[in-house]
Amino acid sequence: MPPKAVVETRVLKALLRHRGVLKEFAKGTDIVNELADEFTLNQQQRTATLERVYRKENRTVQSLLWLRLLFRAADTLAKLGLVSRPTATFKLSGKREWMLTEKGFDEALKLEGKQDLNKENLGVRSFEVQKVVKTLVSTPRPDSYDPVARDKRLVTRSSTSYFRSRAFRQAVIEAYDCKCAFCAFKLSSPDSLSWEVQAAHIVPNNFKGKDDIWNGLALCGIHHWAFDAGWLSVTPRFIIDVSSRVGFLSDDFAQICDVNLIRMFENKKTRMLLPVEKNLFPHENAIAWHRSNRFVA
Length: 297
Ligand SMILES: [Zn+2]
What we know:
By secondary structure, the chain is an alpha+beta fold. The protein has helices at about 5-15, 30-40, 45, 65-80, 85-95, 100-110, 125-140, 160-175, 220-230, 285-295, and strands at about 20-25, 50-55, 60-65, 85, 95-100, 200, 215-220, 230-235, 240, 255, 260.
């Protein structure tokens, strides 16, 4: 059987590969088999059991040695503060999972030689950020919502604002199933760590737009740019609206092969993709701000 320290490293790497979470280890689960495959364990090693005798109660309990080894490795990672235990994660997400902490996330990136990657752009969950995500997606939608943070300083680099902006990105992208709300483009990097889709602010950051899900929209790179530039907006009923100036564009603008990435929405009454939960829809006040301040009708 592989040494415990090596198993710990592999569990941490697997957490990164699986975007920050692994199901609690149980017999026959995919992750248990996946890790066994990594160590090329043979059938005998996979099924070897460990017998523990409880003298007081006069009973013996048999457990799989491989499962025990995985559990002990994860348990050590939890003691080091690198992962959260399934009991703690359950309280947060309702799922019995091991989840990376921020410290574990850094450690896993280091192990993979990817410490230069910007965590803000990775779709990996961490316990600390998921706590903020939970607040973002469970706060009831206010009627009189102001998408502009009037008292917000533009240069804030506290850890609160850092977690908040990562949670914003995570919440928005997940709410839209990693797709562009306009064209539905969906693509991740080959290692599945990052998504092409971006979490766009409806009221942009440099206009003190809030990091709230109601001020967010998942958009591909091109439509994000076109939305910020004022070529595209949405109506209060979430129909994609195209600037009338599009009529002045020459044919080679916004064209990719046979598709014009702006004109594709012209006079089509295309409804943008929306989150499953109504509470997470963009807020009409944020949309109204965009229509009067960015959109070139
Ligand atoms: Zn798009």
